[in-house]
Amino acid sequence: MANDFRVRDSRYIGSVAMPGNDEQKIGNDRTVTDPVIDRPVVLVGMMGVGKSSIGKRLAARLNVPFADADDEIERAAGLSISEIFEKFGEGYFRDGERRVIARLVEGAPKIIATGGGAFVNADTRALILERAISIWLDADVKVLADRVGRRSHRPLLKDKDPVEVLTELGKIRNPLYATANIHIRSDTSPHMRTVENIVKALAQ
Predict the structure, then answer these.
(1) Which of residues 150 and 81 earns the better pLDDT score?
(2) Which of 39, 54, 71, 202 is the most buried if burial means most Cβ atoms within 10 Å?
(3) 18 near 10, Cβ under 8 Å?
């Protein structure tokens, strides 16, 4: 049922979640000098900043599991995020999102990509700040608009100008994102460069 947003136990192989109790590490690109994380690393930031793509690469680099909160929500609800928004509203979605993220931060260290609005929720933000290493991936509005403009599944952008929406969202969300433990800029360069910057920051 969508109103439960239950998340079953899963292990991650690549970007695909497989049923099971043990989490499978992905990739073996980690080097001896890379940091060893002892708690979850949660990527936060605006839609289109690349949290999922960067998160997968970071997980492969550090040889830990990867989880995409939006994918877990859709799997648990049996509905797409757009459908959840349409049927139940944003407030309803945020409450379910909070419960899913609370589940994901439990257990072994992993990389978690969150939706753009997750860290804006006070309860979710407090949970992440208390129990994980939070990383704000930041990018210019024009870069974000170009990325999200290629896809039509974003509920908050439906029939709207991406630049205008993202600019207004940024005024509200950026001060909250700024409370994250680490701030990383993401631009038009390859995602692996952003991954390198994250690894350096985690090692400090």
Answers:
(1) 81
(2) 54
(3) yes
